[in-house]
Amino acid sequence: MALLEEIGHDITSPRAIYKELRGDGFSAQLDFSPYNKRISILDYHFNSSAGPKALNILLETICTRQSFTKVWGKILKKDKALFLEEGFIAEADIRGYFSQQQDAVICSRFFDQRQSSDTADTNSRVLQQLKDYDSTAPRSRHLPEGCSFKYAEKRDLTALAALYRQVFATYPYPIFDPKYLESNLANTIYGLVYKHDKLVAAAAAEINYKYANSEMTDFASLPSERGQGLASIILKELEHKLSAMGINCLYTIARSTSLGMNLTFSLAAYQYSGTLVNNCNISGGFEDMNVFSKYLHN
Length: 298
What we know:
This protein has 298 residues and is α+β, with helices and mostly antiparallel strands. The chain folds into two domains: 2-110, Aminopeptidase, CATH 3.40.630.30; 120-295, Gcn5-related N-acetyltransferase (GNAT) (Aminopeptidase, 3-Layer(aba) Sandwich), CATH 3.40.630.30.
């Protein structure tokens, strides 16, 4: 099977392999990531009752042959039962992810021992700290002296890749490559904070124009600049821009062990809706990720 050979060409490659596939009763857009040992269902359509089982058999075959250990996707809520019948579990949901305010359910199927989390206890403590945090405590809403905000242009991408290289030991996608960042500019807005002429913090809004949603992602700050609320300031700037563009659903998939990032979204009125177990390879190993979402236009 040519697809299997292509996927297996380099099991350490951070570059995902995108494919549109059709089978008995289904069509699907899939993202194969050898680096994450994971298949992502980006989009799908069932045109007969045979579709769910046929898609699941294909996914199972690929995972078995390529030693992938997780399949996940954002599924229409009305299709949740179809995926659960095929051995998936519901890990989280995202309000208004699909157009016309239809919610998504993140459904996953695990292989081998990947469903066993090593950081569940840490995540429980983080989530409890979010509940206990005094949301009325004063916090900075302005950039520190000497800092300025801007949206990334092509000329900023070398510095952005270098920042990501400094902050992350590993990452699920090749964000250390300026050419990769440039290839995303058509559907990604990067918010940057410079201190004088040095890039010290950044974040991204990855826009799905089909469904008018955006993933708020790739947050990074130099260790020397943390604790000043830069992530929250960038997040707010990105939200303003997305709102003006008519993007209604915002969500993030945050590292479950990072109190700072979970707190950033909690304080910005994003709602926690579940944890994705061992979802991606980031900063040196597989990690659980917490899902938070926010619907802008009620």
